[in-house]
Every structure is written in structure tokens, then in C-alpha cells.
């Protein structure tokens, strides 16, 4: 019975019960969604202050502004290289397995795609980057806009570092405030089994297993691609920087199960930040890389987008040349960067990409709606794993991780 007190066992039980309840009582799905959304909202209410405090304490506490700039620059370069690799792998696997071949396009489900096409028309990629600068910081905190909070936190940390002893007093106060927020997070995380239960019961109850029969090949191809990306690409990167990706995944197993159940990588963002700091990673690196990665390092989302484009091309028997596929990579390298801050981002960004291409009918998106929820867990898991590994990589490159602590906490504990 002592195992029932372990959080990840409780979360696993919650997931299994969610699948069972969703299957046997599909009418419960609306209540299940309410449970899941409530848990995720409880996490979201502390995300922005935790990011703000972590960044301010990391930069102002260390007093090394050059380091912050160097870490941010390295992070953006790393994100661009790795997400491009994710796009390429997605296209290669889709070309080999051809998940859309044999699916008749003349029997598309009748779905209303107006909200996706309207949202896609409203997306302006120049405005996305200018949007990083908040016009009202209170509004940024209220909406949970991670990039705006990160931008303000960096400037605020620089300001604190310039005001001498008054800044030191502020840092000390923020340190205590930060401890209080993490205690709050520990309390909220005790409810994660209920959140995982609600998320899984909603998915199974609302969408069922029937859509998997038709689009199972796409799902299998997507999960194969995600596993290849994690255990080949990211594993090789981890080996190059001298750490085991597998042992790191075991270390964050509780968070992986919570993301699987809740279908949201945001649900564990504060926990991942705390665990990486406990593992010896520098607070400045953690504070800058994790929130930035949630907008610029969406590996799972980029795999999903690249595979979905080729899947729809195969459904409509549209042969895309090598040059056209390179064009897809180029377009998705831009459009995928806007996926983080948009509700229903997968479909909206995919719609925007198809609109730009003028090659594949947008009506094909109706095929993906039923199965999308079953792939959202894979997207969220891959995104979260990619950002966790990215943080350790940047910390290693900066010599900003205490490897003695890391081995004791991560490697010897697994």
C-alpha cells in the first residue's frame, strides 16, 4: 500500500480510471473536461509569477548580464536547429510510411472549419514578434503571456542590478516570495491525479476509439516519429554533452505522466523548472530557456505539422516535389513559432500553412479533428521533453550545471 502514496503511481491510476470511465460513461466527458481544465488553471495561475521570479533572481542575483545574453542567444540558435531537424524527420517518415494513402477524400466528415480559417487569417507573423513587448505588464501577467513576462522580467532584473543595495533587498524579498510560490505548487500538484483522470476521461468519452480505426496509421506514424526524435536525435545530443537522456526521463517520470493525462505541457512547467534547479542547473539558464522554449522549441508540434501537411497531400493524391517539400519546411519554420500562444494552435497554424501554400485543400483538416486529441498528448510530451533536454544542454555548454549534484540527483537516483 505504500506505493499508493507515490505521486506518479497515483497519476497512473488516474489515467487508467479516466480511460475506463470515458469508455463506459461517455456522457461524463463534459464534467471530466471541467475537472481537467480546473487543474490546468490552478497550474497556470502560478506559472507567470514563477517565471518572473526565477528570471529576476537568476539574472539580478548573479549580476552577470553578459551571461544572460549569451544564454538567450545560444538557446535561440539551438531551438532553430533542433526544430528544423524535427520538421525534416516528420517529412521523411511521412514519405516512407505514407499514412494518408488509401483514405478516400470524397467521404470527408462534415465539420465546421470556419473558426480555424478565420483565426488563420488573423495571424500576422510580424505582429507575433512585436507582441513580445507588452503594452501593459499587468495584462501580460493576467493573460499568462510567457514571452511578454519573460521580456519584462529580463529588463526588470537588469534594472535591479543597477540600483545597488536597494536591489539586494528586493532580491532577498523575491527569494522568500519564490519559496512561497513553490510551496503553493507542491500543494496543487497533489491534485494532479484528478487532473490526469479528467483529461483522459474527456478524451475517451468525447472522441472514443472509432476515429483511431480510420486514422490509426497517421497516429502510429506520428508516435514513431516522436520516439525517433527523442531516442535518436535528442539522445545523440545528450550523449555529446555528457548526460543520459533516458536517466533524465526517469527523473521527470511524474511530470511525463501528468502531461500524458492532462494533455498539456504547461501543467508541469513550474515543476520542471524546480526539478532542473534541484539537479544542479543554474537558475539563470533554467529561467531563460524553459519559458522561451515553450514558444520557440515546440518539437512535437513541428513534427505534427510537417506530417499533417504530407498526410493531407496523400489523401488528395497530390504529389509534392522535393522543392515543394523544402518550401513546406521553410514555411513551417516561420508559422510554427506562433503555435504556443494561440488556443487550438495546431489547427490554426496548420490552416495558415495550407493557406500560404495554395496546394492542398483546407477541407482536408476535417479528417484530423477526430484524431487530433489523441495526438495532442504526444505533442505535449515531446515539447516538454525537448525543452527539458535543451535546458541541460545549454547549461552544460555554459558550464552552468553542478555535475556532482546532477549525478547524485538524476543519475544515481534512477
Major sheet: none
Number of domains: 1
Task: Specify the structural class.
Answer: mainly alpha
Anisotropy-based shape: globular
The CATH class is identified as Mainly Alpha
CATH architecture: Orthogonal Bundle
Description of the molecule:
With 414 residues, the protein is an all-alpha fold. The chain has one domain (2-411): Sodium:dicarboxylate symporter (Proton glutamate symport protein), CATH 1.10.3860.10. Helices cover 78% and strands 0% of the residues. The chain contains 19 helices and no strands. The protein has helices at 7-24, 29-62, 65-97, 114-122, 125-130, 137-143, 146-161, 165-189, 192-207, 210-240, 245-251, 253-262, 269-278, 283-296, 299-315, 322-335, 345-357, 365-397, 403-411. Helix 9 packs parallel to helix 12 (253-262), helix 10 runs parallel beside helix 18 (365-397) and helix 15 runs antiparallel to helix 18. The longest helix has 34 residues, at 29-62. It starts with 6 loop residues before the first helix and ends with a helix. The model has no long low-confidence stretch (mean pLDDT 82).
The gist of it:
By secondary structure, the chain is mainly alpha-helical. The protein contains 19 helices and no strands. The relative contact order is 0.18.
